[in-house]
Specification:
The protein is an all-alpha fold. Helix content is 85%, strand content 0%. It is built from 21 helices and no strands. Helix 12 packs antiparallel against helix 13. The radius of gyration is 23 Å and the shape is globular. The two termini are 14 Å apart.
Length: 512
């Protein structure tokens, strides 16, 4: 148990350091790049990244479950299957990467006729797309090398690789924007360099952690790929659902509004996207132990670990999410000092609409892995597909029929559907997958939402009596309410034994 707690904390700290580096990059570079490129060009950086994410609709079928099949075979000591899964996934990803790059070339030929691009930005957008898809190809080819750290429950090694890559990304961005005429495709150049570093380091870690597993052509087995794809096809549909709900917003804004509005929306999504990474990073830290418990058929321990994941995610996320909702306007006013009051208000409203679904999803993020472990994704995906189609259909209908701020319609429609999906579908289906009573996870979810309301009242009360006009005062106030908020959440969320358990984990880490 001590070893598990130690590994958990090391992995958690490493994951949070990756998050912190991403936050620092966004915090310092976004205002600089906005000043150099302008709203329109900056919006296309986000749009191109969305284009790349659309490829995941195809690749997720293979790569999201590859780790599961490799890990379960490894813990069951079936070396033949491990080698076959590992090599087969590598070669399949290589082929997919080449196809992705070819698709990018085709996309770029007439891209100015597919989306609204100001004439002066067409060459830059075209170059950015090509380089971004090349970066995606590099990352795709190296996906399988990230599995070794997962198998050995040493995710901090992958985090180390990501942090190193982030440093490289910062250096490349700083050098290019400082030394040369600004171009949006510098982001793609930096991504290529960072991706190369990540793949190289994960390859080294793979050789160190599982030297007995090698990639050889004779290990390639199409049956293994089909086995993964058979289960992964539902994850592809799930990825399509996510794209329909949140991945099309910049594209829809470009087509229905204009490039400048897309730029504001892209800015508004920056912090919510970063906040969304926190529950994902924390949940990922639990996954190796969950996979091990599932492989060993330790059902009771597995269920208790899932329940603890929910409580821990709620503990970590309530304060930053409510803090962003309450103090967001003050943050944007200080961060984007060159923006007008109207632009700041628009960015703040869009940010809140984007982050609202996280107030539910963040608390249940860890439950999604139950579907992957049990290989029972179909039902959840079908229900989610209904929500996704309804969301995009409602969005288009409202944009065509009502005279209302289109940005609010685009951001608000998907948020409403996502809140219902996270609050209803996820807890019910995960209880079904784990063969528990259907209301098992609702008490914990309702308690977390109720505590969120308490923290909101506290933070809003402070905001109303304190005038924030400088970074020093902003940081001082946020630090104060943040500490108070975490203390209250710890008291309200956990019982005495649970609080003791959380504190013991921290003390054990220090004793190491």
């Amino acid at each position: 148990m001590k070893s598990n707690n130690r590994d958990f904390l090391i992995n958690l700290v490493a994951q949070m350091m990756v998050f912190a580096t991403n936050l620092v990059i966004s915090f310092f570079f976004t205002p600089i790049v906005l000043n150099k490129l302008g709203n329109e060009a900056y919006g296309f950086v986000g749009l191109v990244n969305n284009f790349v994410s659309y490829i995941s609709v195809i690749t997720v079928a293979l790569n999201s479950l590859a780790g599961r099949f490799i890990t379960l075979s490894y813990h069951r000591h079936d070396e033949k299957k491990v080698r076959e899964y590992f090599s087969s996934v590598f070669f399949a990803d290589t082929i997919l990467g080449i196809l992705v790059l070819g698709a990018a070339v085709i996309l770029c030929v007439r891209i100015e006729y597919l989306i609204n691009i100001p004439d002066y930005l067409v060459p830059d957008v075209r170059t950015t797309v090509i380089l971004a898809f090349f970066s995606s190809t590099i990352s795709l080819i190296g996906v399988v090398f990230g599995v070794a750290a997962f198998i050995k429950n040493k995710l901090y090694l992958n985090s180390l690789a990501q942090m190193t890559a982030n440093i490289v990304r910062v250096l490349v961005l700083a050098a290019t924007f400082w030394l040369f005429v600004p171009h949006m495709w510098y982001y793609s150049i930096a991504a290529i360099c960072a991706g190369g570093v990540t793949v190289a380091l994960q390859y080294v870690f793979t050789k160190k952690l599982i030297p007995e597993i090698t990639i050889k052509k004779e290990y390639y087995n199409p049956k293994r790929i089909l086995e993964i794809l058979k289960s992964g096809v539902w994850l592809s549909l799930e990825s399509l659902n996510k794209m329909l709900q949140t991945g099309l917003d910049l594209l829809v804004t470009n087509l229905f509004v204009n490039a400048s509005a897309m730029g504001l929306f892209s800015i508004a999504k920056q912090i919510p996207v970063i906040l969304a990474q926190i529950p994902q990073l924390i949940a990922n830290v639990f996954n190796p132990e969950l996979a091990k418990l599932y492989a060993e058929n330790k059902q009771e321990e597995l269920i208790e670990k899932f329940k603890f994941t929910i409580r821990f995610l709620s503990f970590m996320m309530i304060v930053p999410l409510i803090g962003f909702v309450v103090f967001g306007k003050e943050f944007y006013t200080l961060w984007l000092g060159n923006k007008t009051v109207d632009e700041i208000n628009t960015i703040q409203i869009l940010s809140i609409l984007t982050v609202l679904p996280l107030l539910v999803n963040a608390y249940v993020e860890g439950l999604y892995y139950a579907n992957t472990l049990a290989n029972k994704i179909k039902g959840s995906v079908i229900i989610t597909t209904i929500f996704s189609v309804a969301s995009i259909g409602t969005e288009f209908l409202l944009l065509k029929t009502i005279n209302f701020n289109p940005l609010i319609v685009i951001a608000g429609t998907s948020s409403c559907y996502m809140i219902v999906r996270h609050a209803v579908v996820t807890p019910l289906y995960c209880a079904y997958v784990l063969k528990l009573p259907k209301m098992t996870f609702y008490p914990a979810l309702i308690k977390s939402v109720a505590i969120s309301c308490v923290i909101y009242v506290l933070f809003e009360g402070v905001r109303r009596v304190v005038i924030i006009g400088s970074w020093f005062k902003f940081l001082f106030v946020c630090a104060g309410v943040g500490i108070l908020g975490y203390v209250l959440v710890l008291i309200l969320l956990f019982n005495k034994d649970e609080r003791k358990k959380v504190l013991q984990m921290v003390l054990k880490r220090k004793s190491k």
